[in-house]
Amino acid sequence: MQSIVEGFAGQAERQPEKTVLLFEGKEFTYNQLYRQVVRFSEALKRWGLKRGERVAIFLENCPEFVIAYLGTHLAGGVVVLVNTQYRQVELRHILTDAEVRLCVTDLTGGEELARLKAELPQLEALVLVGGGDIDAFQSFEFEAFLDTAPASQSPVAFPSGEDLAIIAYTSGTTGRSKGAMLLHSNLASNIETLTSSWRWTENDRLLLTLPLFHAHGLMVGLHGTLTTGASAELRRRFEAGPVFETLQQDSRITMFFGVPTMYGRLLAEAKQRNVTPRRLRLFVSGSAPLSEQLFYEFEEVFGQRILERYGMTETIMNTTNPYEGERRAGTVGKPFPGQEARVVHVKTGEPLPDGESGEIEVRGPHVFKGYWKRPEATAEAFTPDGWFKTGDLGWRSPDGYFTINGRARELIISGGYNVYPREVEEVLEQHPNVAEAAVLGLPDPDLGEQVVAVVVVAPGAKISGEELVAYCREQLASYKKPRRIIFADALPRNALSKVQKHLLKEQVEANI
Fold this sequence. Notes:
Strand order of the largest sheet: 2-1-11-10-12-13-14-15-16
Oligomer: single chain
């Protein structure tokens, strides 16, 4: 399999009448979906898209997203993924940087883009899902665009593994986001080792509520479904109540993938309803750290352990807890077969022995080509022998399990001692009166940096900063305890509920 669209086409040939996608009461067989993909591909070529040109998808979860994504690849184009929460600053940067000619969106997205018309000279056309018209651009209703495909289709030519497939912009912690260039071979190799490791087969049905503009939903959930001949029930978004009911009532659902926030809400649903949840073949968590407390509490209520894995935009999936074997709380498991990971000293880059914390580096066929139009950033991200510097801090156990304890940029050096924010956060979140916590390093004239914790108090609870500092002092070395506790109503999060510490730090510094 050179590409995801080639793997999908193979499944459409083998089992054309098998259901591949369910969405809001509609079902698509493999054959039906594939025919729509081919039509979109032909319509793109008829419109004038050349191989290697970029098509942006600025759209919430829906079948049209899947059709446009696969159809762009079949036409030889490159997909630019755009977060639906992005507005003018982010849209201007991404669409200009990637030199996007055509964007698939809805009327709301089209109106947002119309405000930027003068600053997007290369954007020529919009394909609008759900209808509407945007005067600022050449615009097509989605079905009407499909109808522009010629009646006689040219022979299907699948992309090469070395062709560029996706430009996915990383959220980053500083500066403007960079476009990670993922080849078709990166996508194909990663999903093949992942589906094998997780025993994913055509008999599985995934409840897919993660956003498709993100690697977790698209490059794991959708790719795995399409290439194994399985099926997916796609939702526009995650809603705890309806998702819990579906998991309980639909025995065809065998898998659910989510972020820790989702699992916390499903746990609350189970407790509120006072029911024993139905067992699934597999629950997977990623995109943010899964606390040990949530891991064990979920196991107690749901009767099974979540499989936690570790990935990132530039590399898709890096490591996984085992499908069979010990799923160890607080860890992200071992590298997938055919992939490598190691821990190195943050400053010297020298490999470290097991048990010592440093930066995690990875290497293998899943690692991206580099950053779009950013050769300096690309060179800085790799070692001379091809290891990618993830920027994540962690350590490896003697038996090979990796544990992540923060980001290299988030490492706090206080009085010459290293403080890993995740370690302090886990202690704080074990307190019964704390709902969540984020730990930051702020400048300190004496220590260099001081440890500061931003805490959200559990509903109905009360706790003082002095009590929390004392609580941490009991469980951590003195230099790790927070010097200051700041209480907040909520923590800023991105679309996948990951805490955006760079924004939080800006907010805290602005109010000190």
